[in-house]
Amino acid sequence: MRKGQVWSYDILTAVVVFIITFAFLIFFWWSVTTLTTEPRPEGLALGARDISDALLSPGNPEDWNTVVDPGDAGTWGAISLLGMGEEFGSQEISIDKASKLVQMDATNYTALKAKLRINYNFYVEMKEFYNCSETSIIWSPMNCTARGILPGTSEWNSLEHFASTPSGNFTLGIGPDAGGARSVSVLNRFAIYNGSLVRLKVITWTNQTWQ
């Protein structure tokens, strides 16, 4: 074998090794980038759980609703955890805290999202259960008509209705349909609000999809 041929084989071997090594590095970089920049489905589920846990706690400080201006996000800095619970260990939701959260959401969704420590888009609704046609509801001071629910509508015929706060119906965030969501996680929790059983529905969503 000629000396020139030996050199050619050595060069060819070196080139092949270089290409394989380079390809491996590219694949490794792509894998790390994917893991660190793309949220995963389990991340959405954990986010929904974290939001529900926070909202059903009293928050920190527990009297945060008395020390902030819900219309001024600049005053929210003293809150380390947002929650609606009356106290730790209780499933009862504070009407005033719920009302303050509705106002905060209307003021600055992005700031509220940061306070809830969530990296995804979110939507929360609270609904209570009653039949608008029941006599006890019809003669109640807060009957369905007084709440703006008209006879014959789908809302009237439903057994689930948005829980009302002094600041309006309890909803927070941006709904997945309105935001064009492509990946969604839903979590339902139950609590007591204004003496009634309510369902707290927490949705986390993103515009990304996964294989």
Structure explained in plain terms:
The protein is of the alpha+beta class and 211 residues long. It folds into two domains: 1-37; 39-206, no CATH class. Helix content is 37%, strand content 20%. The protein contains six helices and eight strands. The protein has helices at residues 3-37, 41-55, 95-107, 109-115, 135-138, 154-157; strands spanning 92-93, 121-129, 160-162, 164-165, 168-169, 171-173, 183-193, 196-206. The strands form two sheets. Strands 1, 2, 3, 6, 7 and 8 form a six-stranded mixed beta sheet that branches. Strands 4-5 form a two-stranded antiparallel ribbon. Helix 3 (95-107) crosses helix 4 (109-115). The longest helix is centred in the N-terminal third of the chain and has 35 residues, at 3-37. The protein is elongated. The two termini are 52 Å apart. The model is unreliable at 28-38 (pLDDT under 50).
- Could you tell me the number of beta strands? 8
Cα end-to-end separation: 52 Å
Number of helices: 6
**Which series of helices and strands comes N to C?**
HHEHHEHHEEEEEE
Rg over CA atoms: 27 Å
Largest sheet: 6 strands, mixed
How many separate structural domains?
2
Low-confidence stretches: 28-38
Secondary structure class reads: alpha+beta
Helix content: 25-40%
Name the average pLDDT.
Answer: 83
Inertia-based shape:
elongated
The amount of beta strand, in percent, is: 15-25%
